[in-house]
Amino acid sequence: EDFHNLIFKAMMKDSLNSSHPVSSAVQSSEQIEEMFDALSYIKGASLILMLKHYLTKDVFRAGIEVYLHNHNYGTAQSDDLWDSMNEITNGTLDVKKMMKTWILHKGFPLVTVVRKGRTVSVQQEKFLFRVEPENWTSDASYLWHIPLTYVTSRCNFTHCTNAYLLDQKSGT
């Protein structure tokens, strides 16, 4: 419950145009200090949980094991975790490409779902709680690769998982 409260606080901060990405290039020690805030940690943790849920617990764990083995007693770059996950998914999912859309963009998407009969349409756009004119920049080109999981009358979360990756502005 406490973690969910933190997530909602981080989302509120991240929904402002003055937010910052989880990962970005820095040139000064001040910029480094600015990157290590609650938004980076909580959003980062949420993204890891999202990835774990989408990949499944076993696949995620195997990716973590590859990552730890490959970088045992060494250093790692920002893409190394995603590369380790890609090793485990064997090209069925480009984890690096998906996760970069989350860590390199500030903010998060609003997904609108419309169901007509047996057809479900989804559309994404950047969510802004409040536009701050002094910090406004156009983020219309933002596109997230959003892992969506869902249940049907024949398949629920206890015996199978349906998944869809929304990697365009809209999909059906």
From TrEMBL:
<dbReference type="GO" id="GO:0043171">
    <property type="term" value="P:peptide catabolic process"/>
</dbReference>
<protein>
    <submittedName>
        <fullName>LCAP aminopeptidase</fullName>
    </submittedName>
</protein>
<dbReference type="InterPro" id="IPR027268">
    <property type="entry name" value="Peptidase_M4/M1_CTD_sf"/>
</dbReference>
<dbReference type="GO" id="GO:0042277">
    <property type="term" value="F:peptide binding"/>
</dbReference>
<dbReference type="GO" id="GO:0008270">
    <property type="term" value="F:zinc ion binding"/>
</dbReference>
<keyword id="KW-0645">Protease</keyword>
<dbReference type="GO" id="GO:0005886">
    <property type="term" value="C:plasma membrane"/>
</dbReference>
<dbReference type="GO" id="GO:0070006">
    <property type="term" value="F:metalloaminopeptidase activity"/>
</dbReference>
<dbReference type="GO" id="GO:0006508">
    <property type="term" value="P:proteolysis"/>
</dbReference>
<keyword id="KW-0378">Hydrolase</keyword>
<dbReference type="GO" id="GO:0005615">
    <property type="term" value="C:extracellular space"/>
</dbReference>
<dbReference type="Pfam" id="PF01433">
    <property type="entry name" value="Peptidase_M1"/>
</dbReference>
<dbReference type="InterPro" id="IPR050344">
    <property type="entry name" value="Peptidase_M1_aminopeptidases"/>
</dbReference>
<dbReference type="GO" id="GO:0008217">
    <property type="term" value="P:regulation of blood pressure"/>
</dbReference>
<dbReference type="InterPro" id="IPR014782">
    <property type="entry name" value="Peptidase_M1_dom"/>
</dbReference>
<dbReference type="GO" id="GO:0005737">
    <property type="term" value="C:cytoplasm"/>
</dbReference>
<feature type="domain" description="Peptidase M1 membrane alanine aminopeptidase">
    <location>
        <begin position="7"/>
        <end position="102"/>
    </location>
</feature>
<keyword id="KW-0031">Aminopeptidase</keyword>
